[in-house]
Design brief:
The complex is a heterodimer of chains A (about 150) and B (about 220). Chain A has about 150 residues and is an all-alpha fold. Chain A has nine helices and no strands. Chain B folds into two domains: about 20-105, RNA polymerase sigma factor, region 2, helix turn helix motif (Rna Polymerase Sigma Factor, Chain: A); about 145-220, Arc Repressor Mutant, subunit A (Orthogonal Bundle). Classes of the chains: A mainly alpha (about 150), B mainly alpha (about 220).
Chain lengths: ~150, ~220
Amino acid sequence: MHAVVKASLEEYLSGTLEPAGKRGIEAHLSTCEGCREELAGMQDLSQLFGSLLSEEAMEPPPGFCARVLQEVGGRQPVPSFAGLFSLDLALARRLVFACLLTLAVLGSYLVVREGEYPGSLSPEAVMAQQNYPAFDSEHGQDNMLVTLAAYDEP
Amino acid sequence: MGTLTGVLPLPRFGSKVAAKSRVDYQNTPEGALVSRAQAGDEAAFREIVERYQSKVFSIIHGIVRQRNDVEDIAQQVFVKVYVSLRNFDFRSSLITWIYKITVNECFDFLRKRKVRKLVYESDLSEDEVRRVDNSEPAVDRQVPMDATLARRDYVVKLLTRVSDEERMLLMLKEVEGFSVEELAEKTGLNENTIKVKLFRARQKLVKAAQRLDRAPGLVTG
């Protein structure tokens, strides 16, 4: 079925489609046999549903409610797994916001702390370190070069 | 931090949520009634039964028709409501949820009745089957007395070919007469989703009807 019919199918079947929309669909149907047949099938079936309406009101007999309560009296409701962890939605939203706020504050603090301490030593301190045995190794010398290259004057 | 609060929308503490939502329904008087019943309040459950028993009886009578069976099925419906109520998630309205249970129970009843009859008959000899057929009221095989019953039997047979959800949507739309907007409100589904589901359900019904018209024995309920 083409989109022009499908988009307003329910309104067309129930007869509540506005005249302009109805004209658009009928204009398409006049040229499209496939849509015409499919729609006709759906219209025929739609009219059958009226047979499922109860013509006469059938009221529950006296005592029906009491019999239901008697029947369920011995039964246990099925516990809901999700219910074990359920939170009121509004409370859940507030908790999520509080967590995000805490993370943001912590993150800001860590960034600020990072800035207070220089990440590298002064060149004089680096040169002094070369007297240590650990800096005799190639690795230690490479580290010293990297440290000196990355040093920024405060 | 000022930048962050500008990006993140602050929850409005103490203010009402304007959009139609699960929380809104839960805060209605009916939602409060359901919450009390979920917590085990027997008076609340009794109120639910009294509120919806007439509607349930009407729905069942429309589908099943035999008055003797309507009360039995209605009782099963409310037992199922009681047992499953804690799983009700307020996504749809209570009556929509009960409607779905009711329709499903009706179709389960019709299916089991047909299977029971077939199994019973298959255990008997040919002569015995003929004797049984002549003596007991052959409810399923009897030619419907009027056109309405014939149409009912036909559409019930077709409705066994769609899913539970599709069946519920079709009946709410066609039998109860709700619009797509009303269905969206009642079921918690998006309007476009409802349109798609209804369209697919109607296509299945049309195909089932074509098969049934070609070979009546092929579509079994």
